Amino acid sequence: MKKKTILIKNVNIVNEGSIFNGDILIEGEYIKEINDSISAKSADVHVIDAEGKYLLPGAIDDQVHFREPGLTHKANIESESRAAIAGGITSFIEMPNTNPQTTTVEKLEEKFEIASKTSFANYSFMFGGTNDNLEEILKVDPKSVAGLKLFLGSSTGNMLVDDPEILEKIFKSTNMVISVHCEDEATIKKNFQEHLETYGDDIPVKCHPIIRSEEACYLSSSKAIELAKKTGARLHVFHLSTGKETSLFTNKMPLKDKKITAEVCVHHLWFSDKDYDEKGTFIKWNPAVKTEKDRDQLWKALLDDRIDVIATDHAPHTLEEKNNVYTSAPSGGPLVQHALPAMLEMFHRGKISIEKIVEKMCHNPAILFQVEKRGYVKEGYFADLVLVDLNNPWTVKKDNILYKCGWSPFEGTTFKSRITHTFLNGALVYQNAKFSDIKSAKRLTFNR
């Protein structure tokens, strides 16, 4: 189906630190023109009057687990990418700990093949490192994949990279962005054993941040950063959860020049350990949601640019799985549909500006991973765009949750802001809670 020419009029455009009112013309897959006022040249142009609304670049989520292949009872690329589109996330980077794991070039290409047929959003994948797949890592074309993911803690299968010699070899031998999950396994095992001896299997969930402690996070993060400095590797530390770790990062240079970068996830900015009593295992994540003080320090580092990116770590599990006792309930939760509305709620509360949200969720992932022609509202860029009504409240309920797992840690929360339209590669794919039948998702390309 040929894409319509679309003209968005009277909209507040949020881009590169400023908000200005104007019109945007979309032709084919791209933004053709941005101007104060643009006239429709023919009757074929689809005109959208967006007066009072805000136009943002589509968000780029650099850390999701969509569970395909192998774990599709929880989620799949189709279901979760559809939820992402409804949440204003137009591009995602998915993690390698599926079944089988994405630790060979062959398995990587199989995932690209699935996404090419079923994804609602633009897609790329991380290649997974292990203690014994350095040869495969060296075969990966850095222009065709988002980067390399290493689990330095909390891995599934054989993905824990715990051999210091191998780790150093990997850091020395790739130019790709190395994204890491940092929690020290030995510290966690010791803490877990102590709690198991005290409580048995039914450990109170509020002990989670004591088991997966600040010490476990800091020890692992600081070691990874030390190794990156020693080897010159390009390191990105996923999902910071402690205030202490923020001291390891700098805001003394622009993001494009940083060799060591950091990310924070929506749940670590929203929840604290005071929420465990009400939410229980539904906010059990790795790394753990920690104290209010940690949350405050994460906010501070995000706003002063020591933390570069906001992501979701979207990791769904079934209700049945989550309803187990602590030792059996898996960590992780679904977030892609609600991440942008949650951050816009923080705007309403005076915690962050809309311009800063766009910087951390759109511009910076594009800069960090060198994503080609996305993450900005610019002429010549792909028209991945999101229209937001800042004053159109809605409540997260079972019947409007789009995740395959059917639940959300935000259930019962009322958000003031609503995503009304999502454009993907020039096509209007989502409008007022309805999806179009246009499949316009593309594989992300990288300007490396």
Shape: globular
Helical/strand content category: alpha/beta
Q: Can you give the helix content as a percent range?
A: 25-40%
Question: What's the pLDDT, averaged over the residues?
Answer: 96
Plain-language structure description:
The longest helix has 18 residues, at 214-231. The protein folds into 2 domains: 6-55 and 378-397 and 409-435, Urease, subunit C, domain 1; 58-368, TIM Barrel. With 448 residues, it is α/β, with parallel strands linked by helices. Strand 17 and strand 18 form a beta hairpin. The chain contains 13 helices and 19 strands. The strands form 3 sheets. Strands 1, 2, 3, 4, 5, 14, 17, 18 and 19 form a 9-stranded mixed beta sheet that branches. It has an 8-stranded parallel beta sheet with strand order 6-7-8-9-10-11-12-13.
Task: Fill in the keyword field for this structure.
alpha/beta; TIM Barrel; nine-stranded mixed beta sheet; eight-stranded parallel beta sheet; 13 helices
List the helices and strands and how they pair.
Layout: E1 6-15, E2 18-27, E3 30-35, E4 46-49, E5 54-57, E6 59-64, H1 77-86, E7 89-94, H2 105-118, E8 122-128, H3 134-139, E9 147-151, H4 164-173, E10 178-181, H5 185-199, H6 208-211, H7 214-231, E11 235-237, E12 260-265, H8 266-270, H9 276-279, H10 292-303, E13 309-311, H11 319-322, H12 339-348, H13 354-368, E14 385-389, E15 394-395, E16 414-415, E17 418-424, E18 427-431, E19 434-435
Parallel strand pairs: 1-4, 1-5, 6-7, 7-8, 8-9, 9-10, 10-11, 11-12, 12-13
Antiparallel strand pairs: 1-2, 2-3, 5-14, 14-17, 15-16, 17-18, 18-19
Cofactor: Zn(2+)
Enzyme class: hydrolase
Domain Amidohydrolase-related: 54-429
